[in-house]
Structure formats: C-alpha cells, structure tokens
Amino acid sequence: MKARQQQKTVTRTIRLPGSLDSVLQKDAKEKRTTVNSLISSIITRYAEWDRYADAFGFICLPRNGFKLILDALGDETVRQIAETIGSRQPRELMMFVFKKTTLDAFLSQISLFSRYAGFGTYEIEAVSERDYTMVVHHELGRKWSIYLAHLGSQGLKSTVNVAPKVHIAENSVVFKFSVP
C-alpha cells in the first residue's frame, strides 16, 4: 500500500453556527490538537468513508449490541452470511471506491474498514514479493472471527482470485496467501 503523500493545501473559509464552533473548540482541546486539524480529520473521514457508507446503506450499531446479535447466531449461519456478502460486496465496493480490483485496492479497503467501521485492527507483512500474512485483531469474540475469516476469504477470491489459508482464534484471524 502506498503511504500518504504530502498534498498541497487550500485555504477555505466557512461559516459555522457558534454552537458547532464551541463543540469543535472543546473537542480539539480534549484531543490536544487544533480546530483546523480536527476539521480536516472530519472532512477526511467524510471523503474516505461516510460518503461511500451512505451510498451502500451502512448502518451504525453499538458494538455490544452487535456482539449480542452475532452471538445468537450459529456458526454455520455466520459462515453462510459471510460467504454470501464476501462473494459480492468487496468487489462492488472496491469498484465503486477505487475503480479497480487489485491487491492494493483490497488492502486499502481493509484499512478503511479498520479505521472507520470498527472491524478491528490489522497488520500485513510481505513475507516475500508474492507471499503475505495479514492478521486482523478485534474484541468481538469467536463468531466475529468466523465472520471475518469467511468474508475475507471470499473477498480475496472474488476480487484478486486468491485463496488464503486462514487460522481462526477467539479475537483474531490470520490470513496467509500468495499472489500470482
């Protein structure tokens, strides 16, 4: 994945209600940053995530409520749901956002889901030029690991034609794969 490059900035003047400015001032102070930096991160989130999440009909749900729903499902049901979604959604979303289905686009999509959707955190290591290990860590338990394992496997198959080897643990999933 390519590192973010320093981009030329643009000065833009906007009008905000005083109540919003107060919230921004308070939050910037708590986060030990500037209001400008906070606004920039808010707009970045919109540009990288919110506008696509809205277009695809994503919903927001508290993590503990989601975990209760997930835990009420059987392992086979979780697998079937993940495979159904994984066989089409990653490709559709990648084409919509990145206009291509490549390994870099797939990894960028994982990064967005980790950063903004709360799927977990991930690390990827290039073991060699063609061989990769990706670890996804989360705090949602075994059912979420099962879901991520099957979603990720189907996603890799449907987008970059790669069949990973997967190891499922309570709060993590390890994907090992080679690209052609």
In short:
With 180 residues, the chain is of the alpha+beta class. The chain is built from 7 helices and 4 strands.
**What is the name of the CATH class of the largest domain?**
Alpha Beta
Listing every helix as H and every strand as E from the N terminus to the C terminus, the arrangement reads: HHHHHHEEHEE
Overall morphology: globular
Radius of gyration, in angstroms, nearest whole number: 19 Å
From the 3D structure, determine the CATH topology of the largest domain: Gyrase A, domain 2
Q: What's the overall average pLDDT, rounded?
A: 93
Q: Structural class given helices, strands, pairing?
A: alpha+beta
| Overall CATH architecture of the largest domain | 2-Layer Sandwich
Tally of DSSP β-strands: 4
Biggest sheet: strand arrangement: 1-2-4-3
Largest sheet: 4 strands, antiparallel
Through-space gap between termini? 17 Å
Fraction in helix: 40-55%
Share of residues in strands = 5-15%
Number of helices: 7
The count of domains is 2
Low-confidence stretches: none
Please describe what this structure looks like.
This protein is of the alpha+beta class. The chain has 2 domains: 18-55; 63-178, Gyrase A, domain 2. Helix content is 54%, strand content 14%. The chain has 7 helices and 4 strands, in the order H-H-H-H-H-H-E-E-H-E-E. It has helices spanning 18-30, 35-55, 63-71, 75-86, 89-98, 103-116, 142-160; strands at residues 121-126, 131-137, 165-169, 172-178. The protein has a 4-stranded antiparallel beta sheet, covered by helices on one side. A hairpin with a 4-residue loop joins strand 1 (121-126) and strand 2. Helix 4 runs parallel beside helix 7 and helix 5 (89-98) crosses helix 7. The longest helix has 21 residues, at 35-55. The two termini are 17 Å apart.
